[in-house]
Amino acid sequence: MTETGRSAANPSKKSSPTPKAIIHQKFGDKACYKVEEVQDSTQDGCPGLAIPQKGPCLYRCTLHLPEATIVSGTFRKKKDAEQSAAEKAIEKLGICQKEYNPTIQEAWDDLAGRVAFLFANEFLSSPHPLSGHFRAALRREGDFNGHIPVSVIAVYDAKISNICKYINPAAEANSLLVMSLVLKAAAKLTDLALISDKQFSLWRRNPYPPEIVSSVIQEPNFASIPIEVIYVPAPLDKAVEPLTLHINATGYYLDVIARQLGMSEASDVMISRTIGKASSEMRIYSSAPKQNLLDLWSEPQVKQASHFEGSLNARASYFAGQEVYGDAILASVGYKWKSANLFHEAVSLRSYYRMLVNKIPSGAYKISREAILTANLPLAFTTKTNWRGSFPRDILCTFCRFHHLSEPVFSIQSNLLDPSLDLPGSRKKLKAMQSSKEEKSGAGLVAATVDPAVSIEVFSCEVKIHSKSQELILQCSPQESQRKQTDAMQIASLKVLSWLNIFFENPDMPLEKLNLLAEKLDIHFTPRYFKEFALCHLMHDFGSNRTRAYSDSADENEPSLIDIEGQNSGVTPSNGSLACISYSVSLFREGDCMKEHLESSEEFEFEMGNEAALPHVEAAVVQMTVGQSAKFRVKLPPSEFILAVAADSAATLSLLSSRSCKLEYNVTLLQVTEPLEERMEQALFSPPLSKQRVEFALQHIKESSAASLVDFGCGSGSLLDSLLSYPTSLEKIVGVDISQRALARAAKSLHSKLKSLLDSKESSTKIKSAVLYDGSIMKSDSRLHGFDIGTCLEVIEHMEEEDACLFWNVGSAPHGQEEDLDERNQPQSCKFRNHDHKFEWTRAQFNEWASGLAARHNYSVEFSGVGGAADVEPGFASQIAIFRRREDILKNMELANNYVQIWEWSSQDVTHQEP
Ligand code: SAH
Ligand code: MG
User: What is the mean pLDDT of residues 188-212?
Assistant: First the structure.
């Protein structure tokens, strides 16, 4: 299945017809689309959230054609399914797309024809944006011959630029070249003349008839319009400044721009392509390099102009995506379709800097979140539900548009997984999912088993980025497969963005290093092309030492200065959870404490541990609990960020110039949403994996006839809680954990459960005592000496790996169970099932760890698991080790009370502590 960025990112857009349109052209009414709804749990929207039966609707389209019947893939939208079917049909039937495909001679003729058409009488009253220029030109002239700058004809008519592309592909990125082609075509038209080779305006030899002129020229309803523009001087050391142009009623705005730039009139002005958003009228106006134009005119195949007047304007060139010489003006002004009036929009210094920020992937992400001083492009696409702001794929499309590249092309590959192969971790998970899906129909209860005969569909996505002239610039082909096509696209897009971001933020990075980073991200790029981005080095001041500290979380002045206020609520965000904060940022001058407000938000949510917020913000939030506020100051970021948010640029600039400024953040942690692991497992395993683990433990505990149990790393007490409602021989249960917050929750739930059990009188529990300790499993406590059973579920992977290897080294528990999740140990946190996981082991690693532990403490060990089957790949989703003590010796037992008791309940003493 192949999908292009264009069709998805810009469905309403131009040039190539949609697949459906092509099919219609060929088959008309004989093409029959039938869309059906499909319930496909492998395609559901967000893993973990959707209960499969309630998954979002998906559509599949069957296209009946006289020659064939084609079935699309499944899509969220009906129309996407239809387009996909049409696209497949085009491919299958080898339908040739009827497009404009002229010979060079035809193209020249068409170009001349189009120019003649523009100068015809009828065109004056057409709704085309160019006709506004014709009318303005007629209004300002003494005669009715209509002097139209060639640059205007070159940029405002889509047909002309399209034809020029066929004559010379380089015309796409070079308006000077288009101008020269227009001149050459116009030279063949006897009705038209060029004013002079100093003044590139075309005019009619025969004037327009006066009655036509008077019928189209209306009396202006204004005296003068002020237009806010940005002046961009060529020398980089001269500041970019706001400026107001005054366009008077009878004047032509291009004349005003020309004079402002020190030229005499409109035809001296060179106009760039539009900049920024697709709908924008923002362009760079500069002086036309006439000598270059003359050269091109006489020799239109010359690709690179040889001379230039004035010096290269790096800033303007960077925005325009083409060479701009001398001082320039950035303005949003011009005529639009179907409107006789001049369109104009103020361009502020702030919007200039926002455009600059937008040119870098992380900047585009920041802007999409309206959090320029807080958000950061996340490291990984963990899940769709944890992503905030524009999706990677959309940012990549924005990037390409802003850098005048072709839209990215995504190709999705669908693979069938062969369960008999030993596949890497991510795929194992996939198979487990498949088994759970199979189970739905059978209403099974027990752990899912994998049917080796069933293979499932997974997707990988390749992204290619081309220049406008279709030169391959970059290609990313991720190895790993995803369950969903959109995830595969987002992941590939994010890889590209991450790499591009490194390039733009580290302009001095040597090629070998860039190559190495690219390799890690499955990227191949054309180094030659990246030299063309060299202007970014002059534009973004990331490279300087002053600003580098901003992105360096280890900076000495950052977290230490944090001033946290408010009561400790115990609720802290951990990696993988979503933190929701409110914040405000101001520019703060140390000498006189002057402040200028920059940015604030009532609600900004980000995924912890994924670099989704700037390092200093995350560093502060890690230290906070819900309800607390923090205030801290950090060094200034690159000034483009500050100016991109500053409402009052003048005040901000004056503060910035004093050099003793910092950014002051005020942050309040509003809420923390837990990681998705549990919810994810619930959707994939039936019963949920966590429940299966508890069930497994309960079964063993019951069989053991033990009277006392310690749950190490009990968390909020899921196992202890279940023990209360499960008939066992246990009389005493204890929970140990290092998280006070988890212990508080455990106390609360145990308390209410014990209370109701006691009230009900009919419970089968023998439990007489329950205690919770705040303490680490790295240490033992003599009070737990002699307990019959120790359990430890879902804990070691939340510890540092070396600590897990030290587990029980100091203590000794009699009989235990150990559990870990089976997945390849991968260095990137995003690969883990849960962000708080510090590592994930393979089964072999887990077995090795548990065997070593057992040997050191003289235990036997037996392996089992839940979520899958031992002898069918990929094996159990959760690994379990059962340790049994061989001898009743307690050597090396430390006889200290290392734990702090935080809650106790006893059936003798019903006046126990409230949690
Ligand atoms: N056993 C529970 C909780 C698992 S979450 C369940 O299966 O639902 C992991 C728990 O391990 C967390 O509550 C965390 O606070 C705890 N933990 C992590 N390191 C620990 C340590 N060194 N000592 C004790 N508990 C620890
Ligand atoms: Mg876990």
Answer: 84
